[in-house]
Amino acid sequence: MTCSASLISSLERFFRFDRDELQLRYKGIAPVMRMGLGGALILSAIMMRLLLQNPCEPILPYVNALGACERLLMALCAPLLPKRTSLTEALKQQFEFDEEAVAHAVTEYAMRLNRQLKRSLAEEIASALVDAAMRNGVDACLLAAVVARESSFRCDARSPSGAVGLAQLMPQTAAALGVVDPHDIAQNLDGAARYLATLMRRWCGRDDAVEMALASYRLGPRLIELRLGIPDVAGVASYLDDVLNHYIKLRSLVRREKESNCSSDAEEGRR
């Protein structure tokens, strides 16, 4: 009996699953099972960890958790995306930071994406975002682009996986960053800016550093470090495209704001 067949048999006995149902459930992780001993050991280790956390609870939560195991194993076996460098190159371009212009551009952009957002709240978000970006050495337009993609500037956003707030911080990530209240606008954005800065330092020196940092933000840094690339899973390709598009639009808005301010100053000077 092969190692993978033995594992299937063991799981069948333990969970009292019908064999056909169990094999169908694991059809999606066939590449891992074909890894033989390695794939079996990975899945066994995950199962043991789940079971040892609290063996007194009903088995159903552990069975449901198998979906997460499948996603992890698929990410480990998925092909890598072709290297992308557009965002990294865009951030290298000379861009004179103007705090007032960026804050105004973020305010206008947030109100376009979230039609229910009042200007006063949009201005509060923009101010906190620019402050967080400056404090942590992150491009404010990049941080705004991530927020635009993650929550469309909705402060009360919550994902099915439990991520909360403007930058969709997971509770464990927020705790590790020292964010006491991830629902708080300033704390959420400061935590996201610090996290992005950390991830960008991790991949500094690569010609796709920003893309690797964003993939780490989206999928988790450990997976990206393990693969040394971006696996083609969980819509990460469209995620990177969306952040790039938001970034380009925000930079364009900032330029228009600066040009408008310069024209106003020139007009004032002629009076």
Question: What's a concise summary of this model?
Answer:
The protein is an all-alpha fold and 271 residues long. The protein has helices spanning 3-15, 19-25, 30-33, 37-53, 60-77, 86-92, 99-113, 119-136, 140-151, 171-176, 185-202, 209-219, 221-227, 236-270. The termini are far apart.
Describe the structure.
By secondary structure, the chain is mainly alpha-helical. It has 2 domains: 3-77, no CATH class; 86-270, Orthogonal Bundle (Lysozyme). 69% of the residues lie in helices and 0% in strands. It has 14 helices and no strands. α7 packs parallel to α9 (140-151), α9 packs across α14 and α12 (209-219) crosses α13 (221-227). The longest helix has 35 residues, at 236-270. It is globular, with a radius of gyration of 23 Å. The termini are far apart.
| CATH topology call of the largest domain | Lysozyme
- What is the CA–CA distance across the termini? 90 Å
Taking the sheet with the most strands, its summary is:
none
Given the structure, what is the number of helices? 14
Uncertain segments:
10-29, 53-66
Tell me which CATH architecture of the largest domain applies here: Orthogonal Bundle
What sequence of helices (H) and strands (E) makes up the elements?
A: HHHHHHHHHHHHHH
The number of domains: 2
| Average pLDDT over all residues | 80
Shape verdict: globular
Helix content: 55-70%
Oligomeric composition of the shown chains: single chain
Radius of gyration: 23 Å
Instruction: Kindly state the number of beta strands.
Output: 0
- The class by helix and strand makeup works out as mainly alpha
CATH class membership of the largest domain: Mainly Alpha
Bin the strand percentage. Answer: under 5%
